[in-house]
């Protein structure tokens, strides 16, 4: 019995000795992950959420009534710009939106965009690669300053690409996701907190959301889905919201606006079309 007990204790001691390096390694991994998330949270909180964006003519108080307009553009045009200039399709979308907002404010509202800090809130997916295709939304929010002061479409694109690359490098989507987890909520918790910030401080001027859809036709029985125009809700003090949905080779733009603040929403839609054409032409001429 004494021998058996001695052997049992020796075996347990050996097992503990083997597990110690593993425990230390796990501890280091946890510490590294905590540090990474803390750094991402710090970058997220200092990216503009705690300061006000500039006030513009499309950030007036909103009423109860709405307007909606739409536009369909070829997805290949956006991919062509991306391939020529680098970046992503979403970078192209933001550059097109920036050009349209600049044009609309200058030409339709006689607004001087010099020195304006115009920020877009852009939802981004934080779904892990191994969970793609699963149900439910997993999104975080980026704040992106749109360079309205820049006249050159190529320079606007370059600045936006530089900004989004920095957001990726500093893991700001992870930072927003971590804030959600720390608040024991869901992405809607973050949205509600952002809404309170937007009401009092207005850290951003517009929401721009781009949802990638299937690049093949969808059917309901024998009826083909031709196009789907999305809409994003308006925040307090946001007169226009932009939503996009790519489907079967096209990008469908939906423009949701306050009825009284933007009676000329069609002019904004035209500005988006012209901005897309201008950026494509500039990219082709450079390429």
Description:
- The protein is an alpha/beta fold and 287 residues long.
- The protein has helices at residues 2-49, 75-85, 89-109, 153-169, 172-182, 187-200, 265-286, and strands at 66-74, 118-125, 139-146, 206-212, 219-220, 223-224, 240-247, 250-258.
- The protein is built from seven helices and eight strands; from the N terminus they run αβααββαααβββββα.
- The chain has one domain (2-286): Chloramphenicol Acetyltransferase (2-Layer Sandwich).
- The termini are far apart.
- The longest helix has 48 residues, at 2-49.
- Strands 1-8-7-4-2-3 form a six-stranded mixed β-sheet. Strands 5-6 form a two-stranded antiparallel ribbon.
Summarize the structure.
This protein has 287 residues and is an alpha/beta fold. The protein has one domain: Chloramphenicol Acetyltransferase (2-Layer Sandwich).
Write the layout of secondary structure elements.
Elements: H1 2-49, E1 66-74, H2 75-85, H3 89-109, E2 118-125, E3 139-146, H4 153-169, H5 172-182, H6 187-200, E4 206-212, E5 219-220, E6 223-224, E7 240-247, E8 250-258, H7 265-286
Parallel strand pairs: 2-4, 4-7
Antiparallel strand pairs: 1-8, 2-3, 5-6, 7-8
Helix pairs in contact: 1-5, 2-3, 2-7, 3-4, 3-7
């Amino acid at each position: 019995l004494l021998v058996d007990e001695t052997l049992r204790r020796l075996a347990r001691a050996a097992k503990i000795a083997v597990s110690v390096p593993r425990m230390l390694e796990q501890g280091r991994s946890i510490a590294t992950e905590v540090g990474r998330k803390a750094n991402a949270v710090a970058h997220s909180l200092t990216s503009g959420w705690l300061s006000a964006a500039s006030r513009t003519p499309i950030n007036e108080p909103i009423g109860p009534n709405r307007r909606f307009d739409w536009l369909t553009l070829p997805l290949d045009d956006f991919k062509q710009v991306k391939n020529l200039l680098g970046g992503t399709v979403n970078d192209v979308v933001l550059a097109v939106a920036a050009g349209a907002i600049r044009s609309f404010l200058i030409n339709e509202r006689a607004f001087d965009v010099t020195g304006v800090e115009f920020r877009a809130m852009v939802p981004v997916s934080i779904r892990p690669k191994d969970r793609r295709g699963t149900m439910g939304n997993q999104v975080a929010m980026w704040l992106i300053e749109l360079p309205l002061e820049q006249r050159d479409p190529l320079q606007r694109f370059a600045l936006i690409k530089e900004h989004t690359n920095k957001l990726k490098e500093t893991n700001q989507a992870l930072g927003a996701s971590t804030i959600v987890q720390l608040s024991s909520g869901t992405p809607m918790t973050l949205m509600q907190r952002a809404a309170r910030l937007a009401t009092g401080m207005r850290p951003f001027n517009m929401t721009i959301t781009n949802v990638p859809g299937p690049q093949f036709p969808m059917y309901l029985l024998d009826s083909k889905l031709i196009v789907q125009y999305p809409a994003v809700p308006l925040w307090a003090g946001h007169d226009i919201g932009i939503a996009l949905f790519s489907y079967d080779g096209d990008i469908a733009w939906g423009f949701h606006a306050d009825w009284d603040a933007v009676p000329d929403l069609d002019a904004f839609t035209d500005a988006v079309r012209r901005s897309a054409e201008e950026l494509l032409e500039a990219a082709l001429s450079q390429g």
